[in-house]
Amino acid sequence: MDQNQDPATEDQIELLFPIPLMRSPQLLSSELCEAAIAAIRADKVETNLRSEQLFHTTIANPLHSNLFQEIAALAMPKLVDFGFMLFGERLNWTVKEMWTNMLEPGGSQAMHSHANSFISGVFYLTPSHPGSRTMFIRPPGGFEYSFRHHTREAALGPFNAGKYMVPVTEPGDLVLFPSYLYHEVPKNQGDQRITIAFNAIPDRLNCWGYEIKFSA
Description:
The chain has about 220 residues and is of the alpha+beta class. It is about 15% helix and about 30% strand.
């Protein structure tokens, strides 16, 4: 910048229509993480359709599990705050379903998004290898130019990168994101990785008197 330049005439960069992602460190206590891990390992699991090293428990309503109910209650204030960023009002939110993911060494989770919900979240119960963190993908399609400029010399930033990797997470951390946002988990290079995922919906959405109500 020219030292003689008037600050009022500087170029300004605006973050136009950004996609929010909330990280809440250590929302679960170590005791609750350990209890959840023990319950998950003792529960029935099914193999993921795309990876033989990824296992899930049955998708469940949190009201049917005291453990899930306690975890969902801890997420509720964060859902209200995150929902305010999405819709501009502190709505009443419901965690409508929860399930667990057990990713064995060498396994991965394919790119996907979550249907029929507005906010999705992941609780991390075990440490993740630095190379096996949750990866978020820029939404395909949309109104962007179809050209790309990717070279070894090109600097990547929030406006041209195609993927975003969550920073290193610790047991008890929560990550919230809009349900439409695609995400994946690269090949697990570490020990067994256990998470709890969930989807949430508001009780209603109102657009100038035209209201849609949701129930779980």
